Amino acid sequence: MTGRRVYPAASQDAGESSFARNFGGRAEGVWSAPGRVNFIGEHTDYNGGFVLPIALPHRMRVHARRRDDGMLHIASTAEPLPEVFDVAKLRPGVGGGWSVYAAAMAWALRDAGHRVGGAELLLDGDVPVGAGLSSSAALECAVGKALCGLYGVALTAFETALLAQRAENLFVGVPCGVMDQMASMCCTPGHALLLDTRSLAFAQVPMDLAGAGLRLLVVDTRARHALADGEYAARRRECELAAVLMGADALRDIESVAQLNVLRDPVLRARARHVVTENARVLRTVELVHAHRLWDTGPLLTASHLSLRDDFAVSCSELDLAVQAALDAGALGARMTGGGFGGSAIALVDADEAERVSAAVRRAFAEAGLREPRIFEAVPSAGAA
């Protein structure tokens, strides 16, 4: 998500108070959707591949009330002056900053033929913004749930996720895959979501980290993360070109690294190599999880990071530092997560070592003269409600 911070870590009471200050009275309801962290499967979703995200306990909330004048008023606990849109005049390219994601979802619903109209929306939550944890998808999905709830539109979680992706692709202008929105809508507590982004078939994969004596740490490096800056789109174009040159519909269709030798451009070959090997890592991870061998997934996480750093070139110095510091302190595996160019890393650790690993990462950042990272535990949580 780009633009100013949308919300502080606010309680529901704070959201209700802010709604009353902005709009008077009470909201008709509160809808929410979670951020996500991707366990493994990065930059595979727009290549028709496999991903394995989990929903975070951190959520985006929308306090909403219907308006009959066709106007959309959007405020937040951090930006109290509402942005105002005429829903009938919403078009891609209209609006900017944090409110564009909410407006985009209203546009996507109407463009799909659903009769949603004006509303007052107050946004709050605790999904870190710009951390690669899908604050934008959480906002889109929560707004989608709110508008559907206000106007009696019956959509499945799957349908809402697809509309949210369309909103971000066409209205906001970020060519993201569907993973973030599917995770926000479809994850269940205690599970990761194995998603085949080509067929859109998905399965719930038990992820009992605590039962295995493990914790999954998220390290928000606080390095700037803005996918709309062009690098994300450039990687997608490179992948699409590599697939065309290989005569494939998508890099998902390439089964072995040996097939990549036909690519003469070393950059395209490296990009494709990441996607091919990352898909294999996702499937191997799922095999290990089903075999109750979560401990053994650590090396796959680290291999994913090296591939993202060296072949896909989407890491940065802060992410590399977080990963290396965690590994040096005894993490079983670690990698950047999300689109890259900043944002967050994850580290799989023995539960008894979590505090020591966290302290080591903080110390490494302090010694490098960087802002203290925000570190918290990722607990597989529920999707939108």
Helicity, in percent? 25-40%
- CATH second-level architecture of the largest domain: 2-Layer Sandwich
Uncertain runs: 1-9
**Total number of β-strand segments?**
11
Query: N-to-C terminal Cα separation, in Å?
Result: 21 Å
Looking at CATH, which topology of the largest domain would you report? Answer: Ribosomal Protein S5, domain 2
Number of helices: 10
Characterize the overall form: globular
Q: State Rg.
A: 20 Å
Query: What multimeric state do the chains show?
Result: single chain
Keywords:
385 residues, alpha+beta, Ribosomal Protein S5, domain 2, seven-stranded mixed beta sheet, four-stranded antiparallel beta sheet, 11 strands
Describe the protein.
- With 385 residues, this protein is an alpha+beta fold.
- The protein has two domains: 12-204, Ribosomal Protein S5, domain 2 (2-Layer Sandwich), CATH 3.30.230.10; 207-377, GHMP kinase, C-terminal domain (Alpha-Beta Plaits), CATH 3.30.70.
- The chain is globular.
- Helix 2 crosses helix 4, helix 4 (157-172) runs antiparallel to helix 5 (179-186) and helix 9 packs across helix 10.
- Residues 1-9 have low confidence and may be disordered.
- It is 38% helix and 22% strand.
- The protein has ten helices and eleven strands.
- Strands 1, 2, 3, 4, 5, 6 and 7 form a seven-stranded mixed beta sheet that branches.
